## 1
Amino acid sequence: MDVAPRGYDGVVLTSPVSFGYRRYVLRDTQWYLARLLAACLAHAGIGKRQVDGLAVASFTLHPDGAAAMAEQLGLELRFLEDLDVGGTSAVLALRRAARAVEAGEAEIVACLAADVMGKADFEALIANFSSNARDAMHPYGAAGPNAVFAMITQAYVVRHGTRREDFGKLCIAQRQNALANPHALFRRPLSMEAYLAARPVAEPLHLFDCVMPCSGGEAFLVMREARARALGLPYARLLAAMERHNAFADEDLQLAGGWGLGAEAMYAAAAAGPEAMDFLQGYDDYPVVLMMQLENLGFCAAGEATEFVRRTRFETTGSLPLNTSGGQLSVGQAGAAGGFLGMVEGIRQLTGETQGDQVAAARHGLVSGFGMVNFRRGITCGAALLAQGARA
Amino acid sequence: MRRRPHLPPAARGSASLRLTAAAAEGRFRLPVCEACGHVQYPPAEFCRSCLSDRLRWLGVAPEGEVIATTRLYRSTSRYYEKRRPGVIGAVRLDAGAIVVAHLASGTEEVGTRVRLLNRLDDAGQGTLIAVSETQDIGEVAMPAGTANTEIEGKTVLITGAGGGIGRALIAAFREAGATRIYAGARDAAALAGDKTVQPLPLDLTDQAAVAALPLGEIEILVNNAGRNFNEALLAAEAMRFAEEEIAVNYLGTLRLIRAVAPHMKQRNAGLIVNLASILAHVNLPLMGSYCASKAALLSLTQGVRAELLPWGVRVIGVFPGAVDTAMSADVPPPKMAPAAVARAVIEAVRDGIEDCYPGEMAQELHRKLLQDPKAVERELSVILPEPK
């Protein structure tokens, strides 16, 4: 722990792809992954043979895994990563791919995430999510993360005096950001009246505090900067990243994620602090998790997110653009691809390839992930600090 | 045939099935690490703190404090979707673990001091319910999910109604609010009937007699009829006795359950109570063939329980020690009063208990059987019949 983690040297992210956001689709996850890879290859102007690394994140790939997908996609690989970490999957895929590329153990790693998540798929997923959830949450009618995050939100509100309007401000800003995103499932402005009047799901959470499960996919490529330049690609550079798992395990309920344990070292490795961030693609399965990230990632002091939210604008034109494509709260949560949504949008903002609103002069951005909600907490979290490389 | 009812989610890991085992006896127990003392929740087969696998299921203090709550308006469980909103909460146990539990009314505020009950739910699995520390459990409206425990207003059939325990059961169910009690006995004429109690002639070995019962009316079936010839297995006349004990205690009970069960399944509701004996779990050679018939009844109880659980029908096994009745006149004391057995049956029904061990003798033998069944076998084997 005493050795400061090193930043990354000459590793870039390119070819951001978002695909197939639907409530109802008669396709399998394998098809989604194939479409994503094809789109990445087309964007990069390369063939399958140039891809020698694959990272796959999905909840609905069963009975296949990453290895079976190598066979399905006809890829010959020397790097393979199978990610079962939900909302942290993009940060973890990136970290592993980046080190492999840096070390010369892979040239180009395709990072793919997709899920086909109809109602039955979603119910099957949460019914078999983890033994702790099965044994200690499901028997109470509380399968899925809603109940856990309802209790966490309540504990946070009791501790910090956060009002529903404060959470609502985040959701409404993200909806504003989603309006120009063609993939977003929710593209009608959300008013505070409508937010407050929404039906309760798991008090204190109401409809617009929860993500909509859907099908969809996200993908990007990781390669060396020199390679991207040779291919003439727009790219974002990876400066530093961190991950923490099962942090603060002895806390009664989660009031902070593990980001705070690694944020300082990450900023030091990147030689850029939170004040230098032109946007935050924060993990947004529930607005309370955004509150934690604002604190733990150093945008404000611990316990001060409520005040910070009240004085900050989160639209793409605001002082801290947040989830500039609308985030999962407006785009929809395509299973493990929900963990890729912010990463892919972060790349786009830095390369100028956005499909919706562009943050003016975006030079640095932070992308975070969070996931695996079993009992009392989300277990995994991570963050990656990206910088502008070559713009489109 | 009517469809099976929706039940609460029943899947559990093997460690959590021991929570069910504790709930079946009405106990609140959690796994405690012998090496470091950490209480494990959710249940595990190793200590999450020190990784030791020496865990013991102990009766930890059930008191704690509500630290967060939520009212659930949606559930992926069809069972809970029909019973929403449900209130659940996180409870910090004084013993050190955080659990999630159903919150009974009056405990929905953060900071409420609560006591946890471990109850079987409608799926037959152990679930935790937080009740106010100061509330009398009898007064608490149990949350959705808790096993059906109503006696009031129900129609009951009690077999073996002419015997000591049978008469005590009639009195106990009447007091608990059953509105109609059919009292089945071979000599029904000897039983006093009234507005609530209706004597019925009943020979469990007679298929026609069983078929003639008001089967569709029975909401609670209490299988109390039994024979005991108090003979060792190798005694001179014992073959005939063994056949009759099996014919009544096992086959007779099975015959009646088979007749009543279809009606209970049709209603997606019902309760069956089987009066066995602690000697279903270990043989007392002095009455060896009786014990064997009760062991068959125990096995039957497990089997029909599993078959009926998906249909919303509960099956309770009652395992008393010696009871002071005419049938046990030759058995030496200590013997418990029939009324105490009947009281235990009522409590088992009301508290959602599945395996009931009334009285000190049954409790003590049960405790020791869990520890070392072989030692109990040997202990009882020295009590042999006098040579004749």
Note: The longest strand of chain B covers residues 63-72.
## 2
Amino acid sequence: MRAEDQARRVERAVSLVLRTGVGLSAAVILLGLGLLVAKGIFSNNVRIDAAIPYPRDLAALASGLLALDPASVIMLGLVALIATPIARVAVSILAFALERDWRYVAITAIVLAILVAGLVMGKALG
Amino acid sequence: MSIFLLEFAQLLFVSLVAGAAGSLLGLGGGIIIVPIMTLFLHIDFRTAAGASLIAVIATSSGSAAAYVRDRLANIRVGMLLEILTALGAVTGAFLVSRLAGPVLFVAFALVLMYSLVPTGQKIVSELRGRAIAQGTEQSAASSRIALALRLEGSYFDPAQGRVVEYRLRRIPLGAAIMYIAGLASGMLGIGSGVFKVLAMDHVMGMPIKSSTATSNFMIGVTAAASAGIYFGRGDIDPFVAAPVALGVLVGSMLGARILPKIAGVGIRIAFFAVIAVISVQMLLSGLGVGK
């Protein structure tokens, strides 16, 4: 019975991670859109995907955020969204560990490793 | 009206419609929004795919919580197969920058046409006034791999008024199809739900309800695997991705909650026809016809 309770708790944790991630990122994206309006970017007469620069790595993202650059704020929301399923996988490792299902701890760790390797290689191989 | 505002409004609107149409047809928003962005709004394929992946993550994560709670999604099966979809997605995300545009257009058109098959079958059976056969014959036999990895499950089916139990088989073939699903996702910016359901339902013998729920549960991770690479490469354009993600998210919620109450088979056929035409246009455009 206690194992069942634990499994339930973990399911709730997984749900919470997903909901919080989506909610937070949507809020940050909306904030960024508000800044776009405030800074008058909507009245720019340029194509949406062409002329306005946006941060392309975490360092540029950080400095953009400090300057309250709208593109950087939106990007923060998008990065949070990408991180949400990755966080879900990380929480699942904990879930299987609580169930003492070591085989699935290993399987889930492999998935997390592939996700992280993809991020790192994406940067390196461009 | 400035060009920026006009294009922003266009993206928001078509994403809203794509999300609604997708959920009504049982397709992801990505498979509809990418052709519209590339064909009609003339957005670069990689930028379109990156924005679509963001939308896929938003819709999948938003709905996965409910599936986990209802225990329809099989978390073990999902985690195991995510190894393959994540590997496929990483491969696909690298391939997209090395393949020429026309190849991507043709590949997309073929995947889109294939994705329309189950929807078409459903519409035909609706017109004939009977339910489609659900899933494949359940097999009591379970393969050795399935036993070792505890690939079984059960859920309560209110329609049948009983608990449905199942065991899986043909894991290697199912896993191979999952790799292809991941490849298509990373290359084309879609969730590849149709391939995932094919692998679990037709090949591995999982009941269709669990297959669909597990597929939805997995899609977010598959999309995150390639979206991370798109971001690392600087291919996520926030000005494009923001309206697309919000539009598809809201559209699919409206589609799931409101449209079934007001939409008959007629609107389904209309959406189906429009998307079928778009898939042909995508194919022609990839083959260089009509330019």
Note: Residues 118 and 125 of chain A are 10 Å apart (CA to CA).
